[in-house]
Structures are given as C-alpha cells and as structure tokens.
Amino acid sequence: MIVNTELEQKGNLFPSEIISYKKDVDTLSFTAKNNVVLQVTVVRDSVIRFRYSTTGKFENDFSYGVTVHASRGYSFLDVSEDETHYIITTSKLICKVEKLSLQVSLFDAIDLKLINEDEIGFHWEECYEHGGDIVKMSKTCQKAESFYGLGDKPVDVNLKGKRFQNWATDSYAFGKNTDPIYKAIPFYTAIQDNKSYGIFFDNTFKTSFDFAQERRNVTSFWAQGGEMNYYFIYGPQMEDVVKNYTDLTGKPHALPPLWALGFHQCKWSYYPEANVKEVTNTFRDLKIPCDAIYLDIDYMDGFRCFTWDKNYFPDPKRMVKELEDDGFKTVVIIDPGIKIDLEYDVFKEALDKDYFCKRADGPYMKGKVWPGECYFPDYTKPEVREWWSGLFKELIEDIGVKGVWNDMNEPAVMDVPNKSFPDDVRHDYDGNPCSHRKAHNIYGTQMARATYHGLKKYAYPKRPFVITRSAYSGAQRYTSTWMGDNVATWEHLAIANNQAQRMAMSGFSFAGSDIGGFAEQPQGELFARWIQLGIFHAFCRVHSSGDHGDQEPWVFGDEITDIVRKFVEIRYQLLPYLYTAFWKYLNDGTPILKSLVLYDQEDTATHYRSDEFVYGEQILVCPIQEPNAKGRRMYIPKGKWYNFWTDEVVEGGKELWVDADLDSMPIFIKEGAVIPKYPVQQYVGEKEFDEITLDVYYKEGKESSKLYDDAHDGYDYKKGRFSLRTFKVTGKKEEFILQQHKRGDFNAGYTKFKIVLHNLPFTITSVQIDNVEVELNQSGTDRTQAITVDKEFTELHLFGE
After folding, report:
1. Which of 178, 399, 560, 570 has the most CB within a 10 Å radius?
2. Cα torsion for 152, 155, 159, 164, to the nearest 10°?
3. Which residue in the list 133, 410, 617, 709 is annotated as catalytic?
4. Which Gene3D superfamilies does the record match to this protein (predicted)?
C-alpha cells in the first residue's frame, strides 16, 4: 500500500479559545476559534446540560432517555464574565467556562466550594473507520471521591478504581466483574466532601467509564460516536441526585398492579398444562403464597411469538381462566426474533409492511435464535411499535394473560462472535436514521415500550405488567427488569444484592434477580438465603433453566420449605409497606432500595458498604451471603434500630454481630417507624379483611411514616381515588401520641387498625382516642401492647407511669 507521507496524523483534538457567545433564554452557546461549539442549557437550578459540536452544527436534538415529562425551569439565572471565564449562576450552582479552552468547573452557589471540574475536559478523535467523532470527557477526581450507579454492573456498590463499558450484551452465566452485561445505563453519582452530584451521559453508542482506574486523579467517559452530551445533576444529597435523574429520564407511567409485587414462580419451561397445574396446585396445597406463574418459550408453536403449542396447551383461554380462579396470573415470554416462515401470520405481515431491520446494502438482518433463522422488527420506528402493540390483543384481551416478559432483546443473536446484530444494520431511530452502533443500546427498551403500550391498551382498565432483560436509561417508565442469566452460587447471591441496590440508585427500582440462580442447581441452604434476600426486592421471582433440576420451594426438603413459606409470608404481610414505597418512587423518584451510602452519605463508613441496604425508608436488611453461617457482622447506620425478631434496640453508627441461623436473617426497624401489615394471603385479593396491623416502634422524640392505598389495580387513583395516611409519632418518657392525617377519596375495605406498640417504656394507665378517654382494652406479648382502633382515628394518646 502506498501511503501519502503528507497525510496528517491526528490524535486527540481540543477546543480552542472562545470567539463568540450568545444567550437564548435558558441556553448559552460558546463558539471556539476552531469551530467547536459548547451549548450550556440550564434545565433546572440543579441540572445543567452540556452539549458539544466539533463542526459548528448540532444533530437533531432527540433522546430516548430523557422524558418529555421531565421537570424544567429555574428560579434564578445570571450570566457574567471576567477576564478568563464566563460565569453562569443559578440558585444552586455556579458554572465557569474557561475562555481559552471551554473547560468547565462547577461550584456550590451557597458555600462557593468546588464540586466538579474538567481535567482536560472535552476532546475528540476523528473516527475514519465509521465516520464522525469518538467523543471524550475527562474530569478531575477529587480527594476521597467515590462513585456509584451505572445500572446492573456485577461488582461492589462503590465503583472507584474500576472501568466499564455500556453495550447491552447477552451474558449467560456472567460472573463477578463480567463487563458488559445486559443493560446500558450511562449514569453515575459521586460523593466528595459530603457533596453529591450525578452525570448522565445521554449517548446510546458504546460508552465507556473510567473511575480513576487508568489515572488515580482522573475520571473520564467517552463514546464511539455521537455527541458529547451530558447532564450535570447536583444534590448535594445523593438521594436528591437520584430523584432528579429519575425525574429527567422518567418515573414509571403507572403503579404496578399489587399482584405484580407478590411472589412469582418461573422456569424454563413449565409445560405441558398438566405440569403447570401441578406446580400451582402444590403452592396452594403447601400454603406458600404466590401470585404469578410464568410460561417460557416452550409454550409457543415452534418458538413462534404470539402462538401456542396446542399439543401442550390445547385450550389456553380455559387454562388461564382456571389459573386465575386459583389466584395465579399468567405471564408469558415474548422475544424479538420472528421466525422466517411465510405461513406464519406475524412474519408475513411484518414482511409485507417492511417492518424488519435491514443491513446497510438492502437485505434483511437475519440471525439465529430459538425459532431458527429470524428477522427482527425495528422498534425504533413508530409504526412498528404501534403494530407490535397490536399483536397483544389475542394474548391479553382474548386469552387473559396478565403480564409479558421480553427476553433476548439486547438484541441477542446466536452463533455469531459478537452475540448481536452487525454494526451496519440500519434503524429508523424515530426519524433520525442510523446504524446499529447507535441503536443497539436502546433496542430492548423500545421493544419493552411497544410491549407496554400493547398491554396498556388490551389490559385496560387494568394496569400493564412488563418485564425486560435489556434496558437503557428511561426504560423504568415502561417496565420492570431482572438481572439476566445468573448462576446458583453464593457469589451470585452477593452479586444480586449489589445489582438490585445499584439499579435502584440508577433510577430503576422495579428490579430483582433470578432467585436461586438461573444456571446450575442451588443447595437448599443457598435457596433459602436467596429467598430471604429476594423478598426485599421490588421484583420477586424464582427462575431457573430447568437443565439442572427443579427449583420450586418444596424440592429441598421440609425444613427449607418451611423457611421459604415463613419469608414469603413476610413479603405478603409487608405488601402495603412496599406499595407505599412504590408510590413514593412513582411520585418523587425516591429509590425503593437504598444502599447505606444513599441512606446516610455523611457517615463515611457507609461509602464502601455493599451488603446492607434500607428497604423503603425504615427497614434495614442485611442478607447472609455465605454457607453454614449462624449470623454475621453488619453495619448499623446512625440512630436506634429494633431487631425485627426480638425487639432488642441497638444503637447505630457501628458494626456489630447479629445472630441469624438458617431460619432467620438480620432485619431491623428504625425507631419511631409505623409499619403497615396485611394478614397473610395466598395471593393478592384472596381475602377480604376488616383489620390491618400497624406495628409502631417507640421512639423518644418525633418520627413520621406514610401508608398509601388504592384499589390495587386500574387507574382510579389518578382521579384522586387513593388514600394517603401520614402517621406522626411523638414519644415521651410517660406519654405516647400517634396522630393520623388522611387525604384522598379512596375508602379501603378494612375498618380497623390493630396498633401493636413495641417497647413502650411505661405501663399504660389510660388511653384517649380523639380526646375521648376509652376503656383500656389491650392485648399483646411481653414486648408489645396491642390496641384496636377505628381506621379514621386522628389521635391516639397513651398515658403511663
């Protein structure tokens, strides 16, 4: 090959000095001498967007990640300049843009302390292979800075010193530190000097993040194409960063039906119908609560989506109805690969309408998955999503299936080295045509989106329930998720714990793992410990490959069956608590699980804790993650906490030993908490009950708790038919007050609260309800007193000595 010796060899390129500046309402544009443009948009007082172009022109401003419902607007904005910088000031942030280099530094507007600054800052590299730029950003890593988030990465909660890629990948039997795996969520939070910020790099190409691995004082992120386009989100509380990110990328569009928060059982595969019925009947016979049974790919006719194998399931509508009569909702799998078969209606219609993805030079993208050779719908095209949503009419409206589980949507392709589509596959990208390099990471989310709209349409007036394996930022608007094909090992139990925490701090709380492990076979002890963890994840499902043996709760012997039943019953008792936490997530973006650092960032001892987490606002959980354990050491956050099993009160802010034989696990309740509990049911809606329990944990001082309720399905709650009860506790040495304030029009079926008081430091001498003295009529144990009151009480006042 003859090379032109005059050819310019380019490495990294950098912006030059600013030569012009203009302001258009909330957006400031800085143009450099070498045609680089930086657009700074003030989204909110605490959220600033940075968008760079190397050519002086920007692409169409389109994002699958940012929701149109995101909050926008600010209370204060001022722009000034000095000799060296342009200075943008909001009520929360001061952003300085250096005139010589476009380098950015960000400060707290209140105390003027540095939060984050560019190291080299924005730079890029010409990509001659694919065209366009490889865009890069480097930031200075501050002293003792820690990093969190980035979705489902199978590593400890703190990401400091590690490097990752975001490229959705089918990762069967992934291990600790495997990267990348199923999801691409390019968002992280950082904490330094008790100030927390977040960065959302909204770029769907393959992205990389280096958290001070290559250079210990530098954090960087880059993409193999597209724009350098990121949002800087300031707290300074980490929970506020996560809330603002979740607001930006979208909260769930609807509450899940309550049954979706119950216990679910799945296997690859339950078939024929007799096998399904055998499993569901055994749940009922053994009185292990369960709300959903799953059908994997073998329910289909030759793995053709939207079909049934009539040899295994001769009358699906009858079977689904009989299962529902016994309290089981049916959830079925749907994959993106559509079998090439001209006798298959779904394939023929998509072919006729030209809905399949194509290669750059014309032919359809062909790949092998479960049905054999397949074509794949282009879910980035609106009319394809609309068509796909319409395919669910028979499954949902006619047959009565209640949930759909989207798998293999990274997209996964068999027998090719990269496990997915070639780079040259073309996508519509909602009118912004592109290659698969740009569309890969959002393919699964757009499939889940189309599925969600199909279920929303045909399940109406009930709420949709969708699960996805692959996801990009914003997928939480439409779907729940699980962590993919894990393994039945103790290491994977710990990985599942970390992944669920990390997903919650990445804006995606409706998540869980395959309980017990998908690949290989757990021993009974591991299965029991995994159930104990899984009941505290928003999505709670046992799933296994079936290749290695059965994995139902009763296959490990009576001792394990009893332990599983005990903990699944705790799940069902705590459903009103979880439902309330979900309501907070949907309304405020509050994560349902909180790593200790998210719960109390001021305590630096929490910054590297990976095992413990807070469930909702007031329950502290620490799974046992090794065999033969009779307990473990765990960290208790600051404050006083009640041992769930014994009511012993412990002082936090330190590590301590907690006993936990196989039938137990470390669970603690925050003092002052009011924990609502339902009676045990075998499935949601099995019982009409007149009374629910409020477990009230004494605190000297004040604390408040909430209980959200509605019809548990349907959309009436959006019209005000919900109830939100706020309980305020005031504890004194010889006096205790529980006040209730209710808003909303919903009237639940129960009429009474059984208030169970834990650890009152005095003997009750008199009781007033709404300022009227009532006869002392109580029950309880040596550690508790119980008083039954009308649910509409406003104040319970206990006097003692």
Report:
1. 560
2. -60
3. 410
4. Glycosidases (3.20.20.80), glycosyl hydrolase (family 31) (2.60.40.1760), Golgi alpha-mannosidase II (2.60.40.1180)
- Asked whether 256 and 402 are in contact (CB, 8 A), the reply is no
The pLDDT of residue 29 is above 50: yes
Residue 410 bears catalytic tag:
yes
Q: 221-257 burial by CB neighbour count: b if 16+ within 10 A, else e?
A: bbbbbbbbbbbbbbbbbbbbbbbbbbbbbbbbbbbbb
Q: Catalytic residue at 82? A: no
Q: Which of 98, 133, 145, 485 is catalytic?
A: 485
The contacts of residue 713 (CB under 8 Å, 6+ apart) are 257, 258, 259, 462, 463
Cα distances from 212 to residues 220, 244, 700, in angstroms, run 8, 25, 45
What's the rounded Cα separation, in Å, for the pair 801 and 797?
Answer: 14
User: What number is the average pLDDT over the span 698-713?
Assistant: 98
Give the C-alpha separation, 606 to 115, whole Å: 20
Catalytic residue among 98, 202, 407, 514: 407
What is the separation of C-alpha 713 from the centre of its chain, rounded to a whole number of angstroms? 21
Total-model pTM: 0.97
Count CB neighbours of 328 within 10 A: 25
Question: Which residues is 223 bridged to in the sheet?
Answer: 135, 207
Looking at per-residue confidence, does 618 or 7 come out higher? 618
DSSP letters of 485-543?
Answer: S-BSSHHHHHHHHHHHHHHHTTT--SEE-EET-SBS---HHHHHHHHHHHTTSSS-EE-
Q: Is 485 a catalytic residue?
A: yes
What pLDDT shows up at residue 1?
Answer: 45
Name the band, by pLDDT with cuts 50, 70 and 90, for residue 778: low
SS3 for 682-706 is: CCCCCCCCCEEEEEEECCCEEEEEE
Regarding beta strands 47-53 and 228-234, do their DSSP bridges make them parallel or antiparallel, or are they unpaired? antiparallel
